[in-house]
């Protein structure tokens, strides 16, 4: 009997304690899941937990959806440019499924008239949520029975006490809804940060490439999560845009994960075809705008840009520029591909793309290796073929010869000098093997072949350089 009585009292105590804790969390409602706070709220940076309450209980008519690429939008500024009362519902690293979940919550309130949606290709690579075992699905539904996961969560209890007891001048970054999860002020931008990430990411990108999903899987995930949502809501205006990653990010995909790069281009064509069937959808593409993507001063890593770029995106959308049409969807893709193929990666200076004009005719290479000592290197065999120069390679000696008229230039792999008709001459940077091809310093090779090069820096496209090569 004593054991039974103890168990009964223990269970009663547990029930009472749970009731008290749950009632406390419900009354404070730190995530504002049931109501907008009547006290100065303390938000959380855990977006997957915070956004459902914001979507359910705040007033707005426009929402921002997307990954961390959309976090630096300031809702009040977006409203001034595009009109409307804006709520940012971004989620760092979010998949299309996660974006669909929060979009459904917001639209379920009946107040959404407009959506600004930053769409990343990577969001369609998987039809799941991140960390599915711990994702708070219970915050996104209207089922009361599973709310115990919120009401009895120790993190929510701590959050509730913090919301009530912390001085209102503490943690200001979590009290300003307009700047919530906006990381612009805390970020460090510039080429040093970007190139450090570029070096780190080269190995990881090669590993990622081994598991790149097929284009059909990517398309299906888009249809299941994004297109079906748009088709379901013809009453809503959708403004879709493709975020401008740095040109180094695009070049890395092109070089180390070509399927991903090609899938991205194909998806932009496919998505435009699907979107263009609906009058309530507009699409904007910023990924081939060299005035943004080459300016590494505006990036903190390979992908993430400053809030100034977010402001520019909104301004451009408001002005109607960068809009994708049937006439330019292929052009945008082709321009991006040409940019990465001709990109010169120079860690001692700015990145830029080179346009090669040979005797007035443009020539192109599949890819350029990183610059060495500020010297642009090109695949020597490809250059020789385009220029009508005789090319031979001695695999045993690892030496290439380029013959034009009565001049023969020989360069050996990793040698710091070349020979011209047998006479040694120093090279400013040695020839090197890059991705299985022998590459050499273009300007010096042309000079040794008695050609001329005029370098033209474009006034319109500041990150485009033209090499006018003359070989007579």
Q: Which strand-content bin applies to the residues?
A: 15-25%
Query: Strand count, sense and closure of the main sheet?
Result: 5 strands, parallel
Uncertain runs are none
Globally, the shape reads elongated
> What Rg, in angstroms, do the CA atoms define?
28 Å
- Widest beta sheet: strand line-up: 2-1-3-4-5
Distance between the termini: 109 Å
For the secondary structure, the number of strands is 18
Q: Average pLDDT, to the nearest integer?
A: 92
Helix content: 25-40%
Structural class call reads alpha/beta
Number of helices: 15
Topology:
Elements: H1 2-28, H2 47-57, E1 62-65, H3 75-82, E2 86-88, H4 96-107, E3 114-118, H5 148-151, H6 154-165, H7 191-209, H8 215-232, E4 237-242, H9 247-256, H10 258-275, E5 281-285, H11 290-293, H12 307-319, H13 329-341, E6 343-344, E7 352-358, E8 361-363, E9 377-379, H14 380-387, E10 390-394, E11 399-404, E12 407-412, E13 417-420, E14 423-426, E15 432-434, E16 437-441, H15 442-448, E17 452-457, E18 464-470
Parallel strand pairs: 1-2, 1-3, 3-4, 4-5, 7-18
Antiparallel strand pairs: 6-7, 7-8, 9-16, 10-11, 11-12, 12-13, 13-14, 15-16, 17-18
Helix pairs in contact: 1-6, 2-4, 3-12, 4-8, 7-9, 8-10, 9-10, 9-13
Q: What would your notes on this structure say?
A:
The chain is an alpha/beta fold. It has helices at about 1-30, 45-55, 75-80, 95-105, 150, 155-165, 190-210, 215-230, 245-255, 260-275, 290-295, 305-320, 330-340, 380-385, 440-450, and strands spanning about 60-65, 85-90, 115-120, 235-240, 280-285, 345, 350-360, 360-365, 375-380, 390-395, 400-405, 405-410, 415-420, 425, 430-435, 435-440, 450-455, 465-470. The protein has a five-stranded parallel β-sheet, sandwiched between helices. Strand 11 and strand 12 (about 405-410) form a beta hairpin. It is elongated. The termini are far apart.
